[in-house]
Design brief:
Layout lengths: L8 H6 L3 H12 L3 E7 L2 E6 L7 E8 L2 E6 L10 H12 L5 E3 L2 H6 L3 H14 L3 H8 L10
Helix pairs in contact: 2-3
The protein binds zinc ion.
């Protein structure tokens, strides 16, 4: 997609513990990374976990840095092994990454009614998104307020 990737293995290592970095390398070697899609400066990936369902990873690339989130419950400092495995795929095997249109480009083609319909569908499928919309709109409001 023409967007430059400046992150390196050192960038990933700096934001993870030695243990999760090592496990991420194992996951990559074991072929646990199922899919990596790049949309502009965002990466989306699916990585097999210990459960049967794959974990989903979202990464935002910012010049030589990144922010990432994973659906696994890891909370022991730095990013988890799934994020490491997904990013290593991107850094080491760029050709393997599927490039698609950035989300911003797709959304810019929708009118207000389409966007509303899309967001309502997302909320129906992901109930926790309602809280994100609340905080985006300035926090929850009491329905009895008048
Ligand atoms: Zn994870």
């Amino acid at each position: 997609m023409g967007s430059e990737n400046h992150i390196t293995e050192d960038t990933i290592r700096a934001k993870t513990t030695e243990k999760s970095f090592g496990r991420g390398v194992d996951y990559l070697d074991w072929g646990m990374v199922e899919r990596v899609t790049q949309r502009g400066n965002r990466l989306f990936a699916e990585v097999q976990g210990s459960e049967c369902e794959a974990y989903r990873i979202g990464v935002t690339l910012q010049d030589d840095d990144f922010k990432a989130a994973c659906t696994c419950p890891y909370d022991w400092g730095g990013y988890c092994k799934h994020i490491v495995a997904a990013l290593l795929t991107f850094v080491r095997d760029d050709f393997w990454v599927d490039s698609r249109a950035p989300i911003e480009v797709l959304l810019s083609e929708l009118n207000a009614a389409d966007l509303k319909a899309l967001i309502i569908r997302i909320v129906d499928e992901n109930p926790n998104i309602a809280d994100v919309i609340d905080s985006f709109c300035g926090g929850p409001e009491s329905p009895s307020e008048h």
